[in-house]
Amino acid sequence: QYCHLIARRFRDLGVYADIIYEPSDEYKGFILSGGPGDVYADQAPKLPEDFFLDVKVPVLGICYGHQMIAQALGGQVEKGEEREYGKKIAELDTISPLFVNLDKREQVWMSHFDQVIKLPDNYEIIGKTDICSIAAYQNLEKNVFGVQFHPEVIHTPSGDKILDNFIKITECKKEWKLEGWVESKINQLQSEIKDKRVIMGVSGGVDSTVAAVLLLKAGIDAHFIYVDTYSKVSGNELINLKSI
Fold first, then answer.
1. What is the secondary structure of the chain as a DSSP string?
2. Residues 76 and 8 in one domain
3. Which residues form a coiled coil (predicted)?
């Protein structure tokens, strides 16, 4: 849910954001999202060793992403002395391009126990709270930034300004609109499916329902099967299937 909300915020700001699992040359910037794990755990998600050798575009780490960048580049992450959760006041370096046009003291939303306690070489602190001494950092030469707090949630009132500042750093044009995306997807479906029939399972959730609506708007000959994923299944019971 972290990455989906972040992507939604960027789309609301007029820039289309994909959710991907490996870097690609087609993007003008990357956001490494938050997550529930510990970056120092054995099975924790980690950046590829050559990530910062291959990636030449701006990068923003949020929460877990903030910690992951620091650790990958030689910094240090440890469990803090106390958990930091909820609305906090962060002191920000508003000279940073990430925090330009913000107040020097801003309310932010924190949700972490681990924290960065040592920065990689050539990185500088641009934000702190009374509990977290490295709440934000940057390397302007490489255009890499990290924030321990969550700018994507409404409890960080200036969060959209921070994300908008990152858009400016990437030099992305704010031209994306939902209406244009819907039209392009309908055209894509018509081009790829043509006169074929489609049978599709739907759960009633957002993703499958939107996909079904797009197929219908595209005039595709589609038949939908509702899969009741919420019913309990025991013994030889079958999951309820119902045409809609």
1. -HHHHHHHHHHHTT------SS--TT-S-EEEPP-SS-TTSTT-----TTHHHH--S-EEEETHHHHHHHHHTT-EEEEEEEEEEEEEEEEE-TTSTTSTTS-SEEEEEEEEEEEEEEPPTT-EEEEE-SS-S-SEEEETTTTEEEESS-TTSTTSTTHHHHHHHHHHHHT------HHHHHHHHHHHHHHHHTT-EEEEEE-SSHHHHHHHHHHHHTT-EEEEEEE-TTS---TTPPPPEEE-
2. yes
3. none
Q: Considering only CA atoms, give the Rg of the chain.
A: 21
* Bridge-based pairing state of the strands 124-128 and 136-139: antiparallel
What pLDDT is recorded for position 118?
A: 96
On the 0-12 / 13-18 / 19+ scale of CB atoms within 10 A, 173 is exposed
Read off the pLDDT band of 237 (50, 70, 90): very low
- 35: tokens are 């997550």
The pLDDT mean for the chain works out to 88
Write down which residue in 111, 139, 170 finishes a domain: 170
Q: What is the pTM of this model?
A: 0.79
Residue at which a domain ends, from 111, 145, 170: 170
What pLDDT was estimated at residue 56? 87
Active site amino acids: 63, 150, 152
For residues 148 and 193, membership in a common domain is answered with no
pLDDT given at position 79: 86
